[in-house]
Amino acid sequence: MAAWSTRAADAADLAGLRLLLTESCEAAVVPSSALLAEAVDRGLVRVAESEDELVGCIAAEMPSPGHVRLSVIAVRDRMRRQGVASRLLAETVAHSSRRPSEPPLISAVARTEETAVTRLLLVSGFIGTRVIHTGGTDDALHVHFQYKARVEYIDPDARHLVHVHARKQLTESLAPSDHAVTALVTLAGEPAFEIARFEQDDPATLQSGEAAAGIAFSGSILAAITFLLGFAFTSSRFPDDVRLLLIGATFSTVLSLIVYASASGELARIRSNAFGKIMKWGNVLSEYGGVFPFLISLPVTYAQASGDPWTTMVLAVVLSAAIAWYEHSEFSIAHRFRRSRNERALMLITAASPTVGSALVAADVTSWPWTTVLTATLAARTWLYLFRRGAEADIAERRQWQIRG
């Protein structure tokens, strides 16, 4: 089995791409030279190569900022059934979803007879939503597939099977907007589509509940920080730098409350379709400006109240371990964004902060350097998630649709 690798195509690959598409695809689906060159310039073409030869490719076009249409997927015969097409498709979806703006809709159109392409799309997180009438001269039936970037539920009692060649029944089954093709199976020795009904959620109700939960959570954190800040000002031994850290946490938490309230106004009156962006600001400010400073300050407060260095260090180590676990769990805000090597270093500093800070306070050593590093770390993570990452959607290893029992 020959080794192969994937990468983004460049202008030097155009001749090889034309040759690959001509030899592997029907002439009707091969993009023109101008469209192929434009797609390469826009970063919408990925290739697989083996021994300096192009053995597979996927090309797309972007007719609007909110829509990516897959144009063609091609793999040489000798390289099939090795996962080449699957990897090319997965990388294209991941690259398109990481755009700075809202992730675009990723779609494809395939004939019902193209079972290999259909199966590839379905196992890669796509669903068939409707029948497309292309107006061509052939009588082939085309199905529109789109990538599910949002988790939705299907009714387990509202599913049925339709043979691939039952065109009239397939058209009728996909006519309702809440029905879609979710799998390709074998029925009586013939390929068949499994069609399921998706439960229809009320986005306004869900978003309103999310905003209310954000306000309640930030309010609770603000009350806890305010109590701790009051203790800090009544204790003459409490480090001034930790007092400043708690003041900053109070400001950030109040700011997150304002942002969450703005999200409620977005739902009720403004409706500029910016709810996701507003909630991202509230979530990030609440977590890295409020929750983490509060939690990291707890063992420092305990050190001042108890004066026992041993129990202080035990508490600090346990809290550091808990923060490290939380940071790597799917419950953290960081889990909703793409992670880089620098970000993992910042996560390590955050997790180690309770232990380091408590050790400095227990040893009666100046803690300003620790507070400065912690503040810079949390500020860097806040800046990273607010300005260098897209929407809270880049969640790996999660099914794109689920069955609700």
TrEMBL record:
UniProt domain N-acetyltransferase: residue ranges: 4-150
SUPFAM superfamilies cross-referenced by the UniProt entry: Acyl-CoA N-acyltransferases (Nat)
UniProt KW Transmembrane keyword: yes
TM region positions: 211-232, 244-263, 284-303, 309-326, 346-363, 369-387
InterPro entries assigned to the protein according to its UniProt record, in alphabetical order: Acyl_CoA_acyltransferase, GNAT_dom
Domain of life: Bacteria
GO MF entries: acyltransferase activity, transferring groups other than amino-acyl groups
Record key words, sorted: Membrane, Transferase, Transmembrane, Transmembrane helix
Protein name: GNAT family N-acetyltransferase
Biological source species: Streptomyces diastatochromogenes
